[in-house]
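Hi L., both proteins are below.
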Amino acid sequence: MLRDRFASALRKLDVRRSITEGIRFGRSLPPEPIRDLRPDHEQAEPAWIRRALVATQTRSGGGWFVLDASRRVGQQPRSFWICGMPLVVFRSGSQLVAARDRCPHMGAALSGGFVRDGRLICPWHGLSFGAEPCAGYRPLLTHDDGRLAWVRIDDAGEALTDEPVLADRPQRGIEGVIRVEARCEPADVIANRLDPWHGSHYHPHSFAWLRILERGADEITVRVAYRVLWPWVMEVDARFHCPDARTIVMTIVRGEGVGSVVETHATPVRGDQTAITELTVASSERIGFAIARGLQPLLRPLVEYSARKLWVEDAAYAERLYALRHPEVRQPTRLATVPVRSSQASSNIDTQAVSGEPKA
């Protein structure tokens, strides 16, 4: 009798499906018809991804480029390369300061100095600099939005704005920021995000399945099942859109955590290197989430670990796009470290068609 009940329970649970699609929990979503029955490798049309990418590249970022998380820029001067320009970044009091990483006296790297009483001290001869310009030293315009630190490069070839273009974000939430570099161009990072079809194939540890709900000219809305803790998954509807040419934002529009965002910013560093800075802000109206916010110092490393794990793989995807256009460039070593975890190809799109023909 007990064996029969157990067998019946297993049939109801549908163990095979729970392994592949997971067991759902959280807020239920309204049923949506499957708009396209084709397999993912047919739905992921290189022509659409290419057109969407071209459309996004027409949007100006106002000359603004992300440096890193605001909290990671403090009194200790840091060195950044942005658009091929070496910069030193530090804080004078609470003010974010960025300038060329070169002392006007004899060319020392100012990032090797230190800050004393709000002034950056050159390591060679003790010349000091603050937030105000002086002979041979002219700080760039900066912006701190409370989560990310930005710098404006006036000769980046864009129409300049007083502040960076920011997408809507939750005012409060559990957040984390990661920064990784990849051998690719910023457009390759955006192309990766405009291909959501690769998610459950290339990242099966994080996504159980994904279905397309809407697809516009240059944005896309998906229903995706996130793996929380095997075999449990949480379904959400998420929209991907690009406010500027170097940014793509995923916003949860239905399900658990409506309004939560993942912002991915691609910043040209120097040569063929791109810095990928990703901000995650998770929010919820549930009462217990207020308690979770109080545990942010403990939860932030988990948020950043998950994001970094995905970008180890997605950086390899972006590097592959770049390598296909530049066969003369040595294949990125990162590609060899990302195993294909599915019987299907790790990327089911013609990446050469997405990013252009290889150079002769």
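That was the first. Here is the second:
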Amino acid sequence: MKIPSRIHSLQSTLKSIALAGLALAVSATAQAGVIVYEGFNYAGQADNAALGAAFNGGTGLSSNWQGVGKYRSTGLAFSDLAVAGGCAQNSSSQIYYRPLNVNKTGTLWGSFLFQSVGVVDNSSTLLSYIVSKQANGTDFNANTSFGVTPKSYNQTVGDIRVGGNTTNPNYQTNSGGTAVTQGSTYLVLFKVENLIASGAATATSQTITSWILSVAQYDNFKSGGLTEAELNAATQGSGAASVMQRTTLTATQKASFSTNDFLTVQSNNAGDYMNDEFRFSDSSLAEVAPSLPPAANIVSFGPGATIGPVTASAAAISWTVPFGTNVATLAPTYTLSLGATCPKASGSPQDFSNPVHYIVTSSDSLFTTDYTVTVTVAPASTAKTILTCDFGALGPATIAGTNITLSVSPNQAVTNLAPTFTFSAFASISPVSGTTRDFTTPQTYIVTAQNGTTQIYTVA
């Protein structure tokens, strides 16, 4: 498929990883592991700030971002993929780019997160495109380029490319895949084989393969270790055991990944697009899809409990329950970090007359956290206020202190009226709301607070 050179979208956003033990410090000579990482982790920068001189972090990149794009302080999240910081966003026909500071030949693996926040069913929309290319960051048709997009020009699915020129761009549109949807985040994985040195005179057979996964698909495949073999064996579709899209292209070209090339993001036509977690590795597919380390955390407890920070593998949970609650038979519910377990099942009754310990173990059994849960019974409420009084077709009454009045015409019958009331939480009212009474003379209502104190109201 021949596509105009201005049409390839590619939002690059790779969050810097705030994760102890994950080393991303690499030199410009392409050491093993992640060799390029841009996380848009620019703390202190304003949301919607234009990309420019201040956006010059990451690994394996030179200078700063140029062109037209904006920084978003909240980045994309995707299951337990390691993420931190913000992301980048661009709109119709905008492009931003940055020079690479790495030279890599042979095989390269890459990934990024993608989300459309604008129109996704427009037949002319081209969504995020990953590309390395020469010149000034705008030549998509140089035969050193390669790229991946989740949705291609005039298609419902994406495409890939390697090398080519203006008259022969070497695109391969996906066949049989499932379209991405607006507002959903996807993980785009890819592999480029036989990259050559920048400026090489002779072209070579080069292959690019891409896989696009939903969160459910990523969770399914990562359980046994994310491998190319299982991604290639899966069917295309939206099910958890499938891949959204898988595309392969082989061509004799001169695609490179070098200090003469740029990392670029471009969008075309309708829609806004965000990308995050841009990674390139010279060692494996797993390197560009790192999960957070297994954790042993209680994420929520209660309902309504306050969870303190974990210190030295222990933490405190404070839970205040309503007055009158029997703490000997409380059955709290909780959620845990991914894959973690706890012997005390969520929703199982426990005796909280004294503090109760919940021991949480990480999915790899290497970490445990001892949560001490202390329950406090709230004191009885003293509130005993009538908030509203409504006489139905006659309308609402006026409340002034403890006096409630309703104005009616002289010929209005008032012998069988049944006003309804709202009143303070945990309080009660007598007679009960909705009781029919004779309002020929003023009627009294008694509101009793949870602690037993009362307030008398007169309704006339």
